[in-house]
Write a structure and sequence with these properties.
rod-shaped; 3 domains; about 600 residues; TolA/TonB C-terminal domain; 15 helices; five-stranded mixed sheet
Length: about 600
């Protein structure tokens, strides 16, 4: 079950950038184009037809172009290659594969946004596959129809100039079908038998279908059928397809009337006669597509046919130009921050600090500039540093558990700000292997410590190993004098625990990150009742541990007594940090 969840989650993360964001860009552009066309009623129908066709064709071309450019950017050796013009910050959490082969068992969040997008993508793919299968079945039915119909060369059926040596065939169907054409190299015009005996009607129907053949409408219709099946869920695709059917036939009507002696009134009457006929085989065919909803519009535009003369070559140039104009913004868009790396770039990247120094708030706190000093991690990993007195900082070029986006890597510098600490790391060499800059995610562990001061993790989600707290008997091994653990009269805190709690100043970092809990401090109470060598046994971070050490160091005790004399005694105190304390909340609000 977890493997299924992670696969769908990963699918959602990758498809957001490769499928849904390009579709979003196309939708915005297509909506504007179709809206503008609605108000351009006087535009030539052929232009109306080809602009709509170009807009729909730009959708798959845009997706393919965007994918190819991303692949090229991933595998090219040029670090300066970047075609992203429209860049939007990705609002989704990025999902990366684990750096090792282990599977971390944890609860599954079925409402995770990447999982939901991945699930929707799976449904989209499954239904698209079904729709394409149905389209193939329709095509096979057309082939069976073709084989079952007796065909003859069009030149043997009627005399139309220029068709003597053509490879166009004609067939007459017994069923009452609207005239249609299918096929590319050897197109076939299928007509109902009822108009075979009327030469005038036959010639008008043939003239209409011959325009479709000359213009290559069959190939365009074939492409649009595939697009409509693939993007079955998109309302603009379906709207565009319906309007394309209408303007394809209107533009065809115009050319028939402009290029022949066909009488407009007789041509309109033929359309009325064809209205009740069957419109079957529409997916892979181009036909006179007589629809009651558009018939009035077609007849009205026929009256203006002399005004709508246009060059078919010019219209094709317009079609190609619109495709390029729509494809360009889709291909040159990116769903990520301007300086963030794509998931593929992260996987292929390596981060290395060489002979570096660390400044915090403008003060040098760590220097690893001795020759050969280096630490590196692959893109999915992280680097950790622990400057003295500032805990442990872990940073990566990918998001990870508990991290915040806090800075950037640029050439030889790392800069980030977290918990009011401005950290700058300067490396002797370029830090990123394949890129010049990247966004940085950082986490801070105020009580963390690394034995060597820096380390690397193969997986950024690996938590830092906490320092092993000293056992009670080892905590004061470096204390030079003997001490007791239990005595006849234990030390007593003067003023009680309240006297210590009242001196606490809640650390700003802990307030900001809602850190609260109990810090346990262990120390020695000497013969005078003073606190000696206080140490943290259990901490909570956020600056609370340091504050607990400060107030305990100022505490005063009555000394412990053993056999009538003051002695040194080991002692522990719990210091409580609670955010619901009114004083702390008032301090925070002020």
């Amino acid at each position: 079950m977890r493997l299924f969840f992670e696969y769908i989650q990963q699918l959602g993360s990758s498809s957001a950038d490769t499928i849904w964001f390009p579709i979003f860009i196309w939708t915005a552009i297509a909506a504007i184009i179709f809206l503008v066309l609605r108000f351009q009623k006087s535009m030539n129908p052929l232009y109306q037809y080809h602009i709509r066709v170009a807009t729909l064709l730009a959708l798959p071309f845009g997706l393919i172009s965007a994918a190819l450019l991303k692949m090229y950017a991933t595998f090219t050796t040029s670090t300066s290659f970047n075609v992203s013009i429209f860049v939007i910050d990705n609002p989704l959490p990025v999902i990366y594969p684990a750096a090792d082969q282990g599977i971390i068992e944890s609860s599954i969040n079925w409402l995770d946004v990447n999982f939901l997008i991945g699930f929707a993508t799976s449904v989209f793919i499954i239904i698209a596959a079904f729709m394409l299968t149905r389209l193939v079945v329709s095509y096979l039915n057309l082939i069976r129809l073709h084989k079952s119909l007796p065909t003859e060369k069009l030149s043997n059926t009627t005399f139309i100039p220029g068709l003597e040596n053509s490879s166009i065939y004609v067939a007459f169907h017994n069923h009452p079908l609207v005239p249609f054409t299918f096929g590319w190299k050897k197109p076939i015009i299928v007509l109902p038998k009822k108009i075979k005996e009327d030469p005038e009607k036959l010639e008008m129907a043939l003239q209409h279908e011959l325009v479709h053949i000359r213009r290559g409408d069959y190939l365009l219709q074939l492409s649009l059928s595939v697009i409509e099946s693939l993007f079955w869920f998109h309302p603009i695709v379906h709207l565009g397809s319906r309007e394309i059917d209408t303007y394809r036939e209107i533009s065809c009507d115009q050319e028939v009337l402009n290029s022949s002696d066909v009488n407009p009134k007789k041509y309109a009457r033929l359309l009325l006669e064809l209205l009740p006929l069957n419109k079957g085989y529409g997916s892979f065919t181009v036909n006179m597509a007589v629809k009651q909803s558009t018939l009035k519009q077609r007849i009205e535009i026929m009256k203006l046919h002399k005004m709508h003369k246009a060059s078919y070559k010019q219209s094709l140039v317009l079609l190609l130009s619109i495709i390029l104009m729509v494809v360009a913004p889709i291909a040159c868009s990116d769903l990520r921050g301007t300086d963030a790396l794509s998931d593929q770039e992260v996987l292929n990247e390596k981060v290395t600090l060489t002979e570096f120094k660390v400044d915090i708030n403008g003060v040098e706190v760590m220097n690893a500039k001795e020759p050969g000093a280096s630490v590196s991690s692959q893109g999915l990993g992280a680097i950790a540093i622990s400057p003295e007195n500032y805990g442990l900082f872990k940073f990566s070029i990918r998001p990870f558990d508990g991290a915040v986006q806090a800075g950037t890597i640029s050439n030889t510098n790392v800069e980030f700000k977290i918990n009011e600490l401005n950290v700058t790391i300067v490396s002797a060499n370029k830090i990123l292997e394949n890129n010049t800059q990247a966004t940085l995610w950082v986490s801070h562990f105020p009580d963390g410590k690394l034995p060597d001061g820096f380390s690397a993790y193969a997986d950024a989600n690996t938590p830092p190993t906490p320092p092993t707290p000293p056992s009670p008997n080892e905590a004061f091994d470096d204390y030079p004098e003997e001490y007791f653990i239990v005595v006849e009269e234990m030390p007593q805190l003067i003023g009680g625990l309240v006297s210590i709690q009242s001196k606490i100043k809640y650390p700003a970092a802990a307030l900001k990150n809602d850190i609260e809990g109990r810090v346990t401090i262990q120390f020695i109470v000497d013969e005078n009742g003073d606190v000696v060598n206080p140490r943290i046994i259990k901490g909570i971070g956020g600056g609370c541990d340091e504050e607990a050490l400060r107030v305990v160091s100022q505490a005063k005790f009555t000394p412990g007594v053993q056999r009538g004399r003051n002695v040194r005694v080991q002692y522990s105190l719990p210091i409580v940090f609670k955010l619901n304390d009114s004083e702390f909340r008032q301090t925070e609000n002020n």
